[in-house]
Amino acid sequence: MGIDLQVKFAGLTLKNPILTASGCFGYGEEAADFFDLDKLGGIVTKTITPLPRTGHPPPKVVETDSGMLNAIGLTNVGIDKFISDKMPFLRQADTSILVNIGGTTVDDYVKLTERISAESDVDAIEINISCPNVDRGGLEFGASPEGAALVIRACKDVSKVPIISKLSPNVTDIVAVAKAVEDAGADGISLINTLVGTAIDIKTGKFKLSNGFGGLSGPAIKPVALGMVYKVASNVKIPVIGLGGISSGSDVIEFLMAGASAVQIGTACFAEPLVFLRVIEELTAYLERKGHANVTDIIGTVRKD
Ligand SMILES: Cc1cc2nc3c(=O)[nH]c(=O)nc-3n(C[C@H](O)[C@H](O)[C@H](O)COP(=O)(O)O)c2cc1C
Questions:
Q1: Domain locations in the chain?
Q2: pLDDT tens digits along 52-70
Q3: Atom 21 in ligand 1: which residue has the minimum CA distance?
Q4: Is the CB of residue 221 less than 8 Å from the CB of residue 171?
Q5: What is the pLDDT of residues 160-195, one digit of tens each?
Q6: Side-chain half-sphere exposure of 68, counting CA atoms within 13 A
Q7: What is the pTM of this model?
Q8: At CA 105, angle to CA 172 and CA 103, rounded to 5?
Q9: What is the topology classification, in CATH, of domain 7-55+72-195+216-298?
Q10: Which of 167, 236, 277, 300 could serve as a FRET partner for 190 with CA atoms 20 to 30 Å apart?
């Protein structure tokens, strides 16, 4: 039996629900040495900022129990080089291209959205709102419903493509932020970004990361991510992409059952670049076993009884 893995998301048709997560797949060039990018449901690029950024000094990454902490500092080539050097490569891939952007002012986000959404073959813009707002003393845009809505509304006003708001889990009420970005015009939501944390080297008594704090990702965060995805998907009408600690077909199935229309895989692909293909196989095998012809059959099906 042929299984239909196609899903609709925010006006896009994704060939399957497995996408890469921002910052864990660069701009796709390295991964193309390992496998055919056309097999992916979509590529989400590293966050692009107005100017190139070298990021924080090393150490930028620390392994933790069942996860990793990173303080990369949004290292990226900047918008000019992204458009001249990276987009031509991405355009060749027969998959959906979601460009992730970040800034320190609302104006940064607006200018990035204007330029990127005018590029051919950009299917959607994913807005990384986990960035400090310099006009508000460095508080992250995504830390409050108002801050999140401010960025999303401004980007939506100028965008020619769907706007996906990527939520930060470092808030007390994720549903309030999700509803605020929905009201501000977001076409979809992705969650979660990393959870703030740290690690200390007891031999030296110093923080293990040069930046002190970093973002926790990997299997350690999956239960938190899954819970947030369920809460958000049950409280908004726009579609949701789930991510956080996914590394197997069964992880994907959990996120889909919780209400996500698609998922992204980040940390798992550092250890296993082919994880995307394995996960697609495992998902397909499950659907076959359960007699489902379409992956959409299982979206939002989790029950309490
Ligand atoms: C090394 C690294 C770099 C990341 N860079 C970005 C980034 O540039 N923009 C962004 O929105 N998220 C970034 N993230 C967060 C991931 O996209 C993802 O939200 C998070 O890691 C949870 O998924 P995972 O557990 O599958 O990695 C980064 C994560 C890691 C581990």
A1: 7-55+72-195+216-298
A2: 999 999 999 999 999 999 9
A3: 217
A4: no
A5: 999 999 999 999 999 999 999 999 999 999 999 999
A6: 16
A7: 0.98
A8: 80
A9: TIM Barrel (3.20.20)
A10: 277
